[in-house]
Write a structure and sequence with these properties.
Radius of gyration: 21 Å
Number of strands: 17
Strand order of the largest sheet: 7-2-1-10-17-16
Order of helices and strands: EHEEEHEEHEEEEHEEEEHHEEEHH
Strand content: 25-35%
Number of helices: 8
């Protein structure tokens, strides 16, 4: 629903909340959820961020391998700015050492990992990882959350969901809710392989390495700013078609297949010091919503994320800001 916000004040939330700031639950701690949380906090609202993962960042993910002393950005690899708002955010992060330019002009990465910008946005906020929200329950004019791992005692005046839209649909269905248009965005999956090799490797990062096989892109993790060290570290993204065909396959079988394909391109056997496959079920946006966000002012329930505007971190940033503006105006 894209109707304008309705006027609402503290009194509409019940007598026990008069004079208190509006409470907002943000579901998902990726870029969209993080910027929405920061903007709503700046607007004077009380924000709680919940994410089912052990960490934060969503697909701006960094996998740390403590035994080897290195890490991989195994989700989104870099950021670009097309508009002034995200360009200003990147400039600020750059000034404070949170991002750095990488390779070709206009590409930026978080430092020391891709989660850094999200961590900056969420610094000092009420963030609760390891919280799997399974249902939204409306009681009067407020929201209560059903969470698998623990009880969430707070009631919320508004809820913003920043999951990939197939996960949003499941949550809404379970809760007996709907938002018109939520079914429009579609995603392709991606199997990712993280590989560490001793010594140098003659495989530079490049696009579309294996158009007819499993390897879609190869990224040189060890060439990113702040990641240098001994040996070679690669992140391989499988093609969407191959990932879809092998979506439910065991991770070890996927790892073996991708290593074999990589070895064919290297022209020699590879004996990695470390290798691990990771499945992103909702990785590559194929069809967008075509709107900055979805928001139902009657329910004070909204959705944001890259599924709204496009397959870029900047799109998630813009979508989160848009939904925060709608909720902020509603609860002002």
């Amino acid at each position: 629903m894209t109707a304008g916000c309705v006027a609402a004040g503290a009194a509409s939330r019940g007598d026990d909340s008069v004079g208190e700031p509006g409470r907002v639950a943000i579901l998902g701690a990726g870029m969209a959820g993080a910027i929405a949380a920061r903007r709503l906090t700046q607007a004077g609202l009380a924000v709680t961020v919940l994410d089912k993962g052990r960490g934060i960042g969503g697909r701006m993910a960094t996998r740390r391998v403590a035994d080897h002393g290195f890490a991989f950005d195994h989700g989104a690899q870099f950021m670009r700015a097309h508009g002034p708002d995200f360009a200003a955010a990147l400039a600020d992060w750059h000034t404070r050492g949170i991002v750095a330019p990488w390779g070709e002009t206009g590409r930026w990465v978080g430092t020391p990992g891709m989660t850094a910008p999200v961590r900056d946005l969420l610094a000092g906020l009420d963030v609760r990882p390891g919280h799997t929200v399974t249902a939204l329950v409306r009681k009067g004019s407020r929201w209560h959350l059903t969470v698998t791992e623990t009880a969430v005692e707070e009631a919320f005046d508004a809820v913003a969901i920043s999951f990939p839209t197939p996960q949003v649909i499941r949550l809404l269905d379970t809760s007996g809710l709907s938002l018109p248009g939520i079914e429009r965005p579609t995603y392709a999956p991606c199997w990712t392989l993280m590989v560490a090799l001793d010594g140098a490797c003659d495989l530079p990062g490049s696009d579309l390495v294996d158009a007819d096989g499993p390897v879609g892109t190869v990224f040189r993790e060890d060439e990113k700013p702040g990641r240098r060290g001994s040996g070679t570290r690669l992140v391989i993204h499988a093609t969407p078609d191959w990932s879809r065909a092998h979506l439910e396959e065991d991770a070890e079988r996927v790892q073996t297949a991708l290593l074999a394909a990589l070895a064919r391109h290297a022209g020699r056997p590879l004996t990695p010091a470390y290798a691990r496959a990771h499945r992103w079920r909702y990785a590559l946006l194929e069809t967008t919503l075509g709107e900055p966000c979805l928001y139902d002012p009657a329910l004070r329930l909204g959705v944001c994320g890259d599924g709204c505007l496009g397959p870029r971190i900047e799109a998630a940033f813009d979508s989160g800001r848009a939904l925060a503006a709608r909720i902020g105006a509603d609860l002002a």
